[in-house]
Amino acid sequence: xxxxxxxxxxxxxxxxxxxxxxxxxxxxxxxxxxxxxxxxxxxxxxxxxxxxxxxxxxxxxxxxxxxxxxxxxxxxxxxxxxxxxxxxxxxxxxxxxxxxxxxxxxxxxxxxxxxxxxxxxxxxxxxxxxxxxxxxxxxxxxxxxxxxxxxxxxxxxxxxxxxxxxxxxxxxxxxxxxxxxxxxxxxxxxxxxxxxxxxxxxxxxxxxxxxxxxxxxxxxxxxxxxxxxxxxxxxxxxxxxxxxxxxxxxxxxxxxxxxxxxxxxxxxxxxxxxxxxxxxxxxxxxxxxxxxxxxxxxxxxxxxxxxxxxxxxxxxxxxxxxxxxxxxxxxxxxxxxxxxxxxxxxxxxxxxxxxxxxxxxxxxxxxxxxxxxxxxxxxxxxxxxxxxxxxxxxxxxxxxxxxxxxxxxxxxxxxxxxxxxxxxxx
Length: 426
Fold this sequence. Notes:
This protein has 426 residues and is of the alpha/beta class. The chain is built from 13 helices and 20 strands. The protein has helices at 39-48, 56-59, 79-92, 114-121, 156-159, 192-200, 223-233, 261-274, 298-309, 342-351, 355-369, 380-385, 394-405, and strands spanning 7-10, 13-16, 26-27, 66-70, 100-104, 130-133, 140-145, 151-155, 163-169, 172-173, 177-178, 239-245, 251-257, 275-278, 282-288, 312-321, 371-375, 389-391, 412-414, 421-424. It has a 6-stranded parallel sheet with strand order 3-19-15-16-17-18, with helices on both faces. The chain has a 6-stranded mixed sheet with strand order 6-5-4-9-12-13, with helices on both faces. α4 (114-121) links the parallel β5 (100-104) and β6 (130-133). α1 (39-48) packs across α3 (79-92), α9 (298-309) crosses α11 (355-369) and α10 (342-351) packs antiparallel against α11 (355-369). The longest helix is centred in the last third of the chain and has 15 residues, at 355-369.
């Protein structure tokens, strides 16, 4: 049998798995979801019959102001495909285009360029709608405090609208369970303090360490998810639209309706396709973050590292391909690697929490449990500071793995680690 050619996404391009290193490889991929016969027809049906809610055209009222939270550059959500349908709904409700505002829900990420905004929004950007970008340090309305003590600060400009619509895409999230849904508002359009407090729920309250339920694919009992849901409920969003995309960015499904009910339904559908059972962990895993924008920076690429780590044996080797053209993603991430011990880093986070310190902690925890070899555009000395081994090319990474392991075992190759969640047996 001819061995299949394996091509791994890297930035906006791809890298082939080089021949000659392995007699065989095991491949971890999700079963490709069936695409709808008509993408527009499928989207239209969801808008006509949403889950747990009336159509948006019947919920909104003539002359009201509508805020639509959309994803930023770090995640492609097919905003350009669903926005025309949303605007048809607001048109049908008698709402002029100049009373519709798109809020780029950037959370604590960088501001998008004008070109990036135009690309994300698509042709409707010239239809008379307004576009603003959220600012984690801007002006906020205080909505209340959650039962866990999170102060809920949401963009005042957004809250001045009569209706709030959440959009985004559903995928696994390494501690909130799933992306999409409620996250468009918190942390998407929330204050930095609110973002910090919801993310801090990742830690146990009864002792050191990460909360066992704050992990990918889990909503019920997940303290991060539950805190965010409680915060978002204070803003009472009117409607939600979330896409489900293939690793190739094709829309295979969609959910629309009540902001919580529709999102939970979408999460279950996504997990059905992209949670993949594996019989064992492997001593060598080769994973791609999935290309741009999954590997736009190290912080986003860590989500793929987290998934691939689940398939890696303790003290094994994990090769990650992540170009990181935007570097780390923020200047507030790399300085945390002054700590070389995850326990010391956790103690400082508990005393002085910062979101990107938590990501640094998650990276450091993994680099202490296995050997991570990173193929990226990051400076080699910075990669080493993070506890990883830099490699300029994939063949160099494989040779480094052989040096570490003494031989090259059959590897598990994960072409889309930013999408696929390995579920090891036992």
